[in-house]
Amino acid sequence: METLSTPRRTDLKRTLKLKTLQEALQTLLAQVKIRPLAEMVPVEEAVGRVLAEDVVSPLNIPRYTMTFMDGYALRSEDTAQAVPEKPVALRVVGEVFPADFPISTKVSSHQAVYVACGGPVPEGADAVVKVEEVTPDDGCIKVSRPVRVGENIASAGEEVKEGSVILRKGQILRPQDMALLMGVRKESVRVWRKPKLALISVGDELVEAGKADPTKTVNNYASLIAGLALEAGAEPLKAELVPDDAVLIEAKLKEAISKAEIVATIGGCSVGVKDLVPDAVNALGSPGVIVHGVAVKPGHVAGAGVVDGKPVIMLPGHVVSATMAFYLFIAPLINWHLGLGSRGLLPTVKATLNREVKSKTGSLFLRVSIKNGGDGFVAEPVHGGSNVLATLVKANGFAFLPPMETLREGDELEITLFSKHEYAHLGLQ
Amino acid sequence: METLSTPRRTDLKRTLKLKTLQEALQTLLAQVKIRPLAEMVPVEEAVGRVLAEDVVSPLNIPRYTMTFMDGYALRSEDTAQAVPEKPVALRVVGEVFPADFPISTKVSSHQAVYVACGGPVPEGADAVVKVEEVTPDDGCIKVSRPVRVGENIASAGEEVKEGSVILRKGQILRPQDMALLMGVRKESVRVWRKPKLALISVGDELVEAGKADPTKTVNNYASLIAGLALEAGAEPLKAELVPDDAVLIEAKLKEAISKAEIVATIGGCSVGVKDLVPDAVNALGSPGVIVHGVAVKPGHVAGAGVVDGKPVIMLPGHVVSATMAFYLFIAPLINWHLGLGSRGLLPTVKATLNREVKSKTGSLFLRVSIKNGGDGFVAEPVHGGSNVLATLVKANGFAFLPPMETLREGDELEITLFSKHEYAHLGLQ
Fold first, then answer.
1. DSSP E strand boundaries for A272-376
2. Across the interface, do A172 and B421 touch by the CB < 8 Å criterion?
3. Could you tell me which residue, A236 or A7, shows the higher pLDDT?
4. CATH number, position A141
5. CA-based radius of gyration for chain B
6. Of A43, A176, A319, which has the smallest distance from its Cβ to B389's Cβ?
7. How far apart are CA B61 and CA B396, in angstroms?
């Protein structure tokens, strides 16, 4: 008989009270008492972040009336009669480059000033003719057509007006948004803070990757959940490992709750004799565990509690179940911290099922492998045990099917991709 | 008259020889002499990278025959006659937890062993009955139905066979692939090296962001190109700034070519008197500039050269033109370094045009703003000057239209999104 080294639960008949997916999430969100926070970040580091405020431009773009061509600034009226047979000669009285701003150069009647692309347009000029269109001739240029008022000129504020809103609260910042912020001389910008996610893997059998004990199991599920959380917009903290020991679990949980906005355990929340996590959550304070059991397959032993107003998610130890519970509880919490709707940062695609799928009395966490079928995406259900990581490697995304639902071959459904990497991945097929 | 402080070009009638998009890219690729390189990276840092080799599993998963439920390991034949009215009693002779592997525990006739989820199945047992399904009774358990052979048991190697290929060369690694690699005890993995991109912005008028000289222009276009390159899979080096000075441009280019796999200049490649970049590229060695002028709008002054076998891309100084040339030249070079096809890491979507667009004698770099129209994506063309960054902020992606093409309202076209951030961005609409 194997030795019994750790304390164990005595109520071997623990019963799960199954909640629907919606009940489970709503019960949790109703009890979470912390609020999303914003922070200032340097503009250069803001790509991928979500704006927590409207951004108003403090200046005009262009800052001054400028030309966007290499050419000659002139008075358009001087060229009104110009034709190829009888070009107009204008005397070149100066040259202006972008770095010369501000300038005192002026253009009078029948004069021209060379202006380099991006340079300010001298007072008196109202148009710029391109350098390729004129013939230089002894300190003059010859213009052989009428140049329109405003030709090749951009007015100050034409692109961005001082005081106007250039980016809206709730937007995800892209490289071009960052460039625009830099262009209006913003050095930092207010974005929603990424929620910190503390992960605690529970189990005597676990060992950290790299600690090559062949009799132990590598703690790779924490890396998976951390990787998914990072893609969803959270900041995962270094994952912690704890054995099946009530005291140690409680201590790790307490520390995690003090450091992170979202805490999640992996394993130790089922009905076995060493499933000590729910008791530890309850021991830490009120209300403790508020959801234990969800009417979904796989992953029905998932649960959630609240301690110090912060959510503590109990992810099952099976990898597919843990992933289900990540998308059920943690992804919405991340979205909420980022001021985003339910969709969040995860891409979705519409796809056509290539075979029938059915849910039973509970919801179904349907894994699918998506392929580009030429005429849109085709979703093939991926079946397999709740503990088979290979099914998640084969799949690209998921959908939650309501209870007692039958979807037939050819039905369209919306698939949430596991992460944005899936999109490039499935493009390679 | 503004002063003339720097050397300038004398051939003011520089003529561009326009190549088609395809000619321009092919001419460049034919002369590039460096080769993509692979590198080993720690598995934990491999998400988003592209595999440069097939990965073979060095071990079985599960490593041993295990149960994936908390329950009792037994001999199925002992339960063949079990019915609720007449349950079979089996003596519990031990208990096994995952951390106990390897075990010597055995199950004989009419015995059972408690096995925790993930634990090894003792010799002699061929099935596991769930803990919820039995009634404990004085050192025994009562089983009230026949348990099938193999029930709740996963055989060694059932998920992953030792020696089998688990991930293929060319795959983009996702969080679940990383977890699988960790699970088979891989600590590092061979991926394609991200090509380094050196960016040199050219122009007397430019100043680095944060150096708040209001008479100067912030070098934000380099940040835009660096941001796009990062998303496309490159490693952008810190952008350099150089004034319109042939000697300094040449020196910066030389340094950049020694450090990076791809070099790009921004600005200084048009036909103005201070457009000194092409001469600098030619001065550095053979073949020098091999493309100057592309039949595309905007961005026809773009060019490319090769020095020391490495590509030197001349991006125009106008931001939309520079972005066009990034997608024309640099994105394909990045894809090639990453062992990817033309699509690379950039997402594409099919969208329906909401108005007519026409190209003229050259190709058109068509910017579009994509909206989710309920029944698929709708693409609205975004027009505006080649130097208007705001048009890129309004847009999500682009398509290259061939010359003399007319697309009508309702036509479908494939749009390449500027970066993967666009996908989440447009999901928020």
1. 287-292, 296-297, 303-307, 310-315, 348-353, 357-358, 363-372
2. yes
3. A236
4. 2.170.190.11
5. 32
6. A176
7. 43
Tokens for A414, please give them.
């919306």
> Is B3 contained in some domain?
no
For residues B284 and B306, give the distance between their C-alpha atoms in angstroms, rounded to a whole number: 9
> Looking at the partner chain, which of A179, A204, A244 has a beta carbon nearest the beta carbon of B223?
A179
| Interchain pair B343, A94: CB under 8 A | no
State whether B424 and A205 contact (CB < 8 Å).
Answer: no
Supply the CATH number for residue A364's domain: 2.40.340.10
B176 shares its domain with B230: no
- CB within 8 Å of A86: residues ≥ 6 apart: none
Q: Does residue A7 lie within any of the structural domains?
A: no
pLDDT score of A1: 40
Which residues touch B69 (CB under 8 Å, ≥6 apart)?
B117, B128, B130, B131, B152
Q: Are residues A170 and A297 in the same domain?
A: no
Determine whether the interchain pair A118/B218 forms a contact, defined as Cβ–Cβ distance below 8 Å: no
Closest partner residue to B203 among A93, A98, A389, by Cβ? A98
Interface predicted TM-score (ipTM) of this complex, two decimals? 0.90
Closest CA to A71 of A110, A122, A108, A109: A122
Among A337, A358, A386, residue at a domain's last position = A337
Q: What is the pLDDT of residue A215?
A: 72
| Domain carrying residue A168 | 40-60+163-192
Query: What is the spatial distance between Cα B136 and Cα B95, in angstroms, rounded to a whole number?
Result: 14
* pLDDT (tens digit per residue) in B217-234: 889 999 999 999 999 999
The encoded tokens of residue B383 equal 């027009």
User: What is the full DSSP assignment across A356-384?
Assistant: -EE--SSEEEEEEEEEE-SSSEEEEEE--
**A183–B220 CB contact, under 8 Å:** yes
User: Phi/psi of residue A14, each to 5°?
Assistant: -50, 130
Global pTM reads: 0.91
Residue B149 CB contacts under 8 Å (≥ 6 apart), including other chains: B76, B126, B127
Residues from chain A that touch B317, judged by Cβ atoms under 8 A, are 117-118
- Is there a contact between B180 and A389 if contact means CB atoms under 8 Å apart? yes
Residue B218, pLDDT score = 86
Residues B181 and B48 in one domain: yes
Residue B132's CB: how many other CB atoms inside 10 A?
A: 14
Residue A289 covered by a domain: yes
Torsion of CA A406, A412, A418, A423, to 10 degrees: 160
Same domain, B284 and B387: no
Question: End of a domain among A286, A310, A337?
Answer: A337
What is the count of structural domains for chain A? 4
DSSP B128-163: EEEGGG-EEETTEEEE-SPPPTTTTEE-TTSSB-TT
Q: What pLDDT shows up at residue B12? A: 53
Give strand pairing partners of A368.
A381, A397
Nearest CA in chain A to B208: A182
Which residue bears the tokens 């370094």? B337
* Matching residue, tokens 């405020």: A53
Can you tell me the distance from the alpha carbon of A317 to that of A335, in angstroms, rounded to the nearest whole number? 24
- Residue A158 pLDDT > 60: yes
* Closest to B195 measured CA to CA, from B251, B261, B149: B261
Rounded CA-CA distance A126/A141 in Å is 17
Residue A418 has pLDDT above 90, yes or no: yes
Tokens standing for residue B113: 């062993």
> Closest Cα partner for B201 from B242, B248, B255, B169?
B242
Q: Which of B314, B257, B321 minimizes the C-alpha distance to B291?
A: B314
Q: Is residue A145 part of a domain?
A: yes
pLDDT in tens, B333-364: 999 999 987 778 888 888 999 999 999 999 99
Residues of chain B with pLDDT under 50: 1-6, 428-429
Pick A274's closest partner by Cβ from B116, B172, B218: B116
